[in-house]
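Note to self: keep these together.
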Amino acid sequence: MSIQNKLSVVAALLLSLVAGAAACEKEEGDCDDGATQACACTSGMMGAQSCEDGKWAACVCAGDDGSASDPTADPTNPSDPTADPTADPTADPTADPTADPTADPTADPTADPTSDPEPEPGAVCKGDADCSGAQFCVFQFAEDVQGICTVTCDGFEDCPSFWNCCDLANAGLACLPGDWGDC
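Structure:
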């Protein structure tokens, strides 16, 4: 093989490596079609969103279809037309569906709720009015309709565990969840 042919082969390999690396890069908000992830619903419950055409679809939450849930329906009974095919058949059917899943089951129910300190950042919000005290609402992506409450920070030590202190450009430094990516 001549030197010119060898150089052509090396150049082709380098071009394919560069093209392959560029094809692997994803922009923030991109995803793999068919992937799913948990998301926060405006009710405070968790929902799910799926990846469609490389972008995350809207968060799907219980009751989003406008239908009222039937409290007598058995979500685990396949012959029930209102059954949820994803329901856990081992779940307690007498459990309160409106109970807060994030509530501390060991908390004293007789404790004075007005004496609790300000809640940690992370509550679901649609605007600053939904957040308490010095907290404010931030959105991960411009098209999001709900965000999370957060606080300003001077460094990561001011933020909850696994959160980062990020520069929001127009709003200064604020705590953001680590799974929102590097900042």
